[in-house]
Amino acid sequence: MADTLDRLQKDHIQRLLTAYRELMRQHELDAIALYSGHALPHYGDDQYPEFQASGHFMHWTALLEAQHSWLVITPDAKPRLVLHAPTDFWHLTPSLPDEPWVGEFDIELVNEATAPALKGRVALIGNVEALQDGPVAVPHGEANPPALTHALDELRLYKSPYEIACLREANRLAMAGHEAAHAGFAGAGAELDIQLAYLGASRQRESHVPYDNIVGLNEHAGVLHYQHYDLNAPTGRYSLLVDAGRRFRGYCSDITRTHAGPDAPALFGRLIKAMHELKDSLVADVAPGVDYASLQLSMHRRLADILVSHDLYRGTADDCVASGATRAFCPHGVGHSLGIQVHDVAGLTAPDGTPAPAPEDHPALRLTRTLAPGMVVTIEPGLYFIPMLLEPLRHTDVPVNWPLVEQLQPCGGIRIEDNVAVTASGFDNLTPKAAI
Questions:
Q1: Which domain range does residue 210 map to?
Q2: Where does Mn(2+) 1 bind (predicted)?
Q3: Do both 43 and 166 map to the same domain?
């Protein structure tokens, strides 16, 4: 795999170089300088949050932790990487990996944070505003010109074969973590135990995960971005929801699985199976030319079928959607774009850069584009029993089977999520099937 990946990465860098030079020609630029960024300390403290380099910088280098570094692209020379590598006995000095892609750059290792010398018409991309209050002067150039920034976001929306390979590997590594998390649940572990099992099996530090892992037992599975890990296992074991990913060379996976516990009603297990089938049917609909927002509507129509067929809604599927009941059972979008950022760029803009906001009835949808080859998206239908969202329906004549809903509320909810690449002929599900 390594040889193939190295060749794909070299092709990826050449693709970027060609695209950037064409953008420089269109925007009459002499250089584009990408800033990796730098961490700022917590207020009134000398401790820093975990850092990750800016997306456009990582698009070329995958140097996740490179701070105070620059990549300068010009029309007629090798890209120049100015890597901040201070001599330091407090911290490990940054170094470049022993990988062939390094040879595609002219590399300068600098001991002190410094701005590159630039002249002519230059676009600076990244959080260069943060330099204004620091010891390094903002270099010559215009910071984040909107038209160019949009064009670079568009470039990231369409993944190269190298990027697809990285996303596939990120999925493979993450799935090992999901299998370990499921085993930890079967062993009656607490949320913290399950989180640690996930990290160990997926071989990553907590500071390197692409987003904070969601590990929710029982009612916590109904908190969409649940942010804690209980230290003690609950008395009852109704459910586990794990929404967790992995990075590979900077690219993120984002996988969710839900499991029924021994104390869950039998219906909850049947609903999980139905949601897996719903996810698979939506994945099969991914293809070039498909309006992603139409998948959101399709998710709600099929979710209504599940609610009706499992006696949670005692009316027709059409009425279930029209009444807003499906939105109370699933308040989030069907998914989002995926790449260097877990919620990747350009999801809510049209190709020409104009805003393309989410539909009024589905404000949480993060992607409104027409799908095209090279895009990578998540597909993540959900079904939740969240009291604050369902409570308003109690005061209407919407025919929800409340006794059954109340039996399921200790389970929190269900979310099933895969990562899918759009191909010329349809889709490629990057998330491996596992025995869980």
A1: 161-429
A2: 254, 336, 380, 417
A3: no
pLDDT bin (cut points 50, 70, 90) of residue 133 is confident
Note whether 315 and 182 are same-domain residues: yes
Does residue 153 sit within a domain? yes
Query: The domain that contains 52 carries what CATH number?
Result: 3.40.350.10
Rg (CA), the chain: 24
CA distance 108 to 275: 52
**pTM of the predicted model over 0.90:** yes
Q: Which of 101, 127, 157 is the last residue of a domain?
A: 157
CATH number of the structural domain spanning residue 245: 3.90.230.10
Numbered residues of the known binding site for Mn(2+)? 243, 254, 336, 380, 417
For residue 75, what are the contacts with CB-CB under 8 A and spacing of at least 6?
Answer: 21, 24, 25, 30
Residues at the binding site are: 243, 254, 336, 380, 417
67: pLDDT strictly greater than 80: yes
Domain count, the chain: 2
Pairwise CA distance, residues 240 & 135, whole Å: 48
Query: How much is the pLDDT for 1?
Result: 67
Task: Look up residue 39 and give its amino acid.
Answer: A
Q: Which of 411, 386, 378 is nearest to 256 (CA)?
A: 378
Domain boundary among 95, 123, 157: 157
Whether 435 is in a domain gets the answer no
